[in-house]
């Protein structure tokens, strides 16, 4: 997928690709959501990566 393409994410949201296949990222796209947020999306599953706000103060070995 290339820059400025609109894609549908696994949760149904629409997003515009900012960095796509032309970038050096192998497993993700950088997208802008309809609400203006810039987020990272898994290339295969088109799911959003967790944001810093969702993981703040949590260490990976504490999560279940």
- The main sheet orders its strands as 1-2-3-4
Low-pLDDT parts are none
Which structural class do you get from the secondary structure elements? mainly beta
Number of helical segments? 1
The end-to-end distance, rounded to whole angstroms, is 34 Å
Topology order in helix (H) and strand (E) letters: EEEEH
| Number of DSSP strand runs | 4
Structure described in brief:
With 64 residues, this protein is mainly beta. The chain has 1 helix and 4 strands, in the order E-E-E-E-H. 6% of the residues lie in helices and 31% in strands.
What does this structure look like?
- By secondary structure, this protein is mainly beta.
- It has 1 helix and 4 strands; from the N terminus they run ββββα.
- The chain has one helix at residues 52-55, and strands at 6-8, 14-19, 28-33, 38-42.
- A 4-stranded antiparallel β-sheet has the order 1-2-3-4, with no helix packed on it.
- A hairpin with an 8-residue loop joins β2 and β3.
- The protein is globular and about 35 Å long.
- The chain starts with 5 loop residues before the first strand and ends in a 9-residue tail after the last helix.
- The model has no long low-confidence stretch (mean pLDDT 86).
Features:
64 residues
Any chance you could write out the topology, listing elements then pairs?
Elements: E1 6-8, E2 14-19, E3 28-33, E4 38-42, H1 52-55
Antiparallel strand pairs: 1-2, 2-3, 3-4
């Amino acid at each position: 997928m290339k820059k400025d393409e609109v894609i549908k994410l696994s949760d149904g949201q629409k997003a515009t690709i900012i960095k796509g296949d032309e970038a050096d990222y192998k497993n993700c796209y950088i997208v802008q959501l309809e609400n203006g947020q810039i987020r990272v999306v898994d290339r295969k599953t088109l799911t959003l990566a967790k944001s810093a706000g969702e993981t703040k103060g949590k260490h990976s070995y504490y999560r279940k």
